[in-house]
Amino acid sequence: MMFLATITIGLKEGMLDPEAKAISHALGNLGFPTDDIKTERVFLIRFDAADHRDAEEKARGMCERLLANPVIHHYEIEVRR
Amino acid sequence: MMFLATITIGLKEGMLDPEAKAISHALGNLGFPTDDIKTERVFLIRFDAADHRDAEEKARGMCERLLANPVIHHYEIEVRR
């Protein structure tokens, strides 16, 4: 059966986020001063799995094998039908 | 007072997403066939605003002036204290 995994990947606390820094700088120049910016990526992935548990395991495998770098990223997985 | 805006930016329906295509291909090669992949970016932005309405207006301004390209992106804004 088909499942939809929402995988959110962000940088671990303390990691430099040069994109956030560049955006903060640009927003300031446009008249939008900011106090803090974090960036995340979201992948919405539809795939076939035997059951909910199998879907979670597959989504975790996708993160660990490809989508996230465990040294610098944290990730969250939410699976639903 | 400080507000936190969660801004989610994705491609409009029908727009090509070459990153999603590349990920789909790579996941397939790793033994994770997928049916559909969408990618989104999330910006978590903390900034000062007079009230909730002012914060929403500023967040919308950030999207329209810098973060999103209205021709190809849709965006969602969620503001909280």
Outline of the structure:
The structure is a homodimer of 81-residue chains. Chain A has 81 residues and is of the alpha+beta class.
Question: How would you describe the overall organization of this protein?
Answer:
The structure is a homodimer of 81-residue chains. Chain A has 81 residues and is of the alpha+beta class. Chain A has one domain: Phosphoribosylformylglycinamidine synthase subunit PurS (Mth169, Chain: A). Helices cover 35% and strands 38% of the residues of chain A. Chain A is built from two helices and three strands. Chain A has helices at residues 18-29, 52-67; strands at 2-11, 36-48, 73-80. The model of chain A has no long low-confidence stretch (mean pLDDT 97). Chains A and B meet through helix 1, strand 2 and helix 2 of A and helix 1, strand 2 and helix 2 of B.
Keywords:
homodimer; 81 residues; alpha+beta; Mth169, Chain: A; three-stranded antiparallel sheet; 2 helices; elongated
Strands of chain A, count: 3
Strands side by side in the biggest sheet of chain A? 2-1-3
- Radius of gyration of chain A in whole Å, from Cα? 16 Å
Coarse shape of chain A: elongated
- Can you tell me the CATH superfamily of chain A? Phosphoribosylformylglycinamidine synthase subunit PurS
Mean of pLDDT of chain A:
97
Proportion of residues in extended strands of chain A: 35-45%
Report the CATH C-level class of chain A.
Answer: Alpha Beta
The CATH topology of chain A = Mth169, Chain: A
What CATH architecture label of chain A applies?
2-Layer Sandwich
Structural class of chain A: alpha+beta
Distance between the termini of chain A: 8 Å
In terms of quaternary structure, the protein is homodimer
